[in-house]
Amino acid sequence: MASITASGADPEAFVRTRNGHQEMDLLVSGAHCAVCISRIETAMREFSGVSNARLNLSTGRLSLSWTGASSQAHDMVRRLGEIGYPATPFEPETGADAGSQEEKRLLRAMAVAAFASANVMMFSIPVWAGADMDEQTRQWFHWLSALIVLPTVAYSGRPFFTSAWAALKTRHVNMDVPISLGVLLACGLSIYEMLVGSGHTYFDAAAMLLFFLLIGRWLDSRLRAKAGAAARRLAAMQAASANRLDATGQVKSIPAREVQPGDLLLIAAGEKVPVDAEIESGNSQLDAALVTGETRPVEAKPGTQIFSGMVNLEAPLRVRATAKRDDSLLAEITRLVEAGEQSRSRYVKLADHAARVYVPVVHSLAALTLVGWLLAGAEPRIAIINAIAVLIITCPCALGLAVPAVQVVASGRLYKSGVLVKSGDALERLAEADAAAFDKTGTLTIGKPQLTNRAAIADEDFELAATLARTSHHPLSRAIADLAGMGTAAHQVSEIPGGGLQAEIDGEDVRLGSARWLGVDARGDAASEVWLQRGDNAPVRFVFADQERPGAAEAVADVEALGLPAQMLSGDRREAVDAMARRLGMTDWSAELKPAEKISALEAAKTDGRHVLMVGDGLNDAPALASAHVSMSLASATDISQAAADFVIQRDRLDAIRETIEIARKARRRVLENFGLAALYNMIAVPLAVFGFVTPLVAAIAMSASSLLVTLNALRLAR
Fold first, then answer.
1. Domain boundary among 36, 61, 91
2. Considering the domain boundaries, does residue 686 fall inside one?
3. β-pair type (612-616, 630-634)
4. How many C-beta atoms lie closer than 10 Å to residue 415's C-beta?
5. Number of domains, the chain
6. Cα-Cα-Cα-Cα dihedral of 124, 216, 700, 179, to 10°?
């Protein structure tokens, strides 16, 4: 019988055939670390014919490609379920956000654990304090504690238990294994102690441990969901419609995913280009910021190749589709962003490095303690209590808090400085950065055309141009209108495709547009310009340029002073990039780069052993921001770039880059100090537990004290 996915869907229905290969995208649940990625991809590559198996941890998207029968999809889904990672078809347009569902489950589990932790203390504190109570009352308190905590452990412990069980089934261990063992053994020992009436139970320790660890797991889930937002938003952008012309010339609106190469499309002024195409008829200007990052409009005429995501600014165009939506430039950018996020998700955090050593050492110590006491002739109860004391006193609570505590404090301090931290391990990666790459337009510059010769234009001519410019959405018109501010707008303005604006004002014909349209002999330079002509008067030239952002030169100097050599990666023209590099004192720059070429530059730096900090703002920067070792964007950046970046700088203050790097480096030092404190604590506490000098109750108190110690050390960062 054919298997179906966790959602009840037949996976074979979602298999695509391309170039002789079968392809399928699945949404995988339960993966939360680099080890999970390795296990999932290894399991998929065990199938014959599999040429590609890549999991994006941020989005949960598993991309598979293989040669052979499409029915193999059933076996792949079944295998994922067997190793503890149930899968459903990945449908970005209609599917629910799995990350959001995971957050809700963790939040509910955390709320239940918090409720239990608060209420069980009412019964634990009197017992701890040695209050004057008879044995029957003490037993009632133990039973009430059990009634509160045991259902809580069964519900709130599921995220750890399921993960630990999935790891053990495949003969692996992860950080959730000792957590689960510690919680279950503490509860089991408490039940035993309660039944035999010895008076020592540890229900409160189990509930509080789950509560604190669920806080860290929930925060990690939220940060991973934000890290994957860029690819999800790009996928949503592809769900556009297109106007297709049939053989009779009739226009029909269809979903962009139905466009086929060779289809004739009509793109009205103001519309986005839905797929890659070539212009067959019409003249206009396009906003090509998606490809180049440059706000200067580009000429569009028959034979011009245009790309999905560009915006038609002036006049209708008839275009011939050259690619399907899934093969368009926007789809390629989406894949580049996802690939970058996937690469970043493989980053092994400091806590993961520690966990690889921690887990086998702790298990071995507990097992040796149990065996040693039994060989020494101790009762099984005593041997088990001492082994549990080892597990509890070495519980990964302090290790688990060592990094999150520092991240929370550092993120709070950066937030006060106007910097949002969007990725859980961003501070660690920023501390490792040893090179910097800047986009030009919108990052080192304002990102909008600015009128540069206002002083040479008479006030009367400027205001006349503004009355026309206020009626247009063209970037150069908006530059004039924004500088002029609120005011009157001309009536009955005609917008001439490829020309400009025309209206009759006070009985005179007034035109604002290109030199070619007005018959003016242009200067022959590369400057952006428009001309104003009133009646038979001499035309007046308006010159525009993208101005350097305040603090740009200082920001470049700051990162270089911190040991990060700076380079500029721009999609703009060589002349413009060269001029900006000279003003900023940068000798390393590249121009006319497409999104994939920016990634290639970053990959080349990575091959040379560099950890690059990328700073950008445009949609075309999103793949580079996702692929870089660590990245920043400005608050004025596109939503996609903000989603792809690890840090978002509010108020567009470039001077915040230096402060963020310095805090990240301090945070790394605090994390290493916390690991040192945790190691020192274990060196002292573990021998005491092994030789029976520590009861599980004392171990629970010591464990809490170690957690408090690393938290206080993290708070030093807030000063």
1. 91
2. yes
3. parallel
4. 12
5. 6
6. 110
| Strands lying side by side in the sheet with 566-569 | 419-421, 647-649, 630-634, 612-616, 435-438, 566-569, 589-590
438 with 574, same domain: the answer is yes
CB of 581 within 8 A of CB of 527?
Answer: no
Asked whether residue 417 falls in the same domain as residue 557, the answer is yes
CATH code of 311's domain: 2.70.150.10
Burial of 535 per CB tally in 10 Å (0-12, 13-18, 19+)? exposed
Provide the token pair at 101: 């569902």
421: alpha, beta or left, given left = phi > 0 and alpha = psi -120 to 50? beta
Domain end residue (candidates: 508, 528, 545): 545
Q: At 275, which amino acid appears?
A: V
- Distance separating alpha carbons of residues 283 and 290, to the nearest angstrom: 20
Q: How are beta strands 61-66 and 284-287 bridged, if at all?
A: unpaired
User: Which residue shows structure tokens 């964007």?
Assistant: 633
Q: Are residues 421 and 563 in the same domain?
A: yes
Assigned token pair, 714: 């993290």
User: What stretches of 612-653 show up as alpha helix (H) in DSSP?
Assistant: 622-627, 639-644
Pair 584, 552: CB distance under 8 Å: yes
Q: Which domain holds residue 611?
A: 408-446+549-666
- Helix (H) or strand (E) segment spanning residue 205: helix 203-227
Q: Report strand pairing: 419-421 vs 508-513.
A: unpaired
The tokens of 373 are what?
Answer: 């006491």
Question: Is the CB of residue 9 less than 8 Å from the CB of residue 90?
Answer: no
Q: What are phi and psi of 614, to 5 degrees?
A: -105, 130
Whether residues 657 and 675 share a domain: the answer is no
Q: Are residues 28 and 87 in the same domain?
A: yes
**Do 57 and 109 sit in the same domain of this protein?**
no
Looking from the CA of 307 toward its CB, the CA atoms found within 13 Å total: 17
Six-digit token string for 604: 């080349």
Rg (CA), the chain: 32
Which residue blocks in 423-551 are alpha helix, DSSP H?
A: 426-432, 459-469, 475-484, 515-518
C-alpha span between 594 and 572 (Å, rounded): 10
Nearest alpha-carbon partner for 667 in 435, 426, 434, 418? 426
pTM for the model stands at 0.64
Q: Token digits for 187?
A: 């509860």
Q: If we measure between CA atoms, which residue out of 444, 467, 481, 388 comes closest to residue 621?
A: 444
- Mean pLDDT in consecutive groups of 10 residues from the start of the chain, 719 residues: 51 76 83 73 88 76 86 88 81 52 84 88 71 74 88 91 79 72 80 74 78 74 56 52 83 81 86 86 77 67 84 84 76 61 54 65 82 88 79 64 73 82 80 93 85 91 93 86 89 80 89 86 67 90 87 93 93 85 91 86 91 86 86 79 81 88 90 80 81 70 70 76
**Tokens found for residue 155:** 């519900």
CATH number at residue 630: 3.40.50.1000
Residue type (1 letter), 486: M
Cα–Cα dist 214/227, whole Å: 20
The catalytic residue positions are 439
SS3 273: coil
Which of 670, 669, 706 shows the shortest CA–CA distance to 686? 706
Q: What CATH number is given to the structural domain containing 82?
A: 3.30.70.100
**Which phi and psi angles does 23 have, rounded to 5°?**
-130, 145
Domain co-membership, 260 together with 309: yes
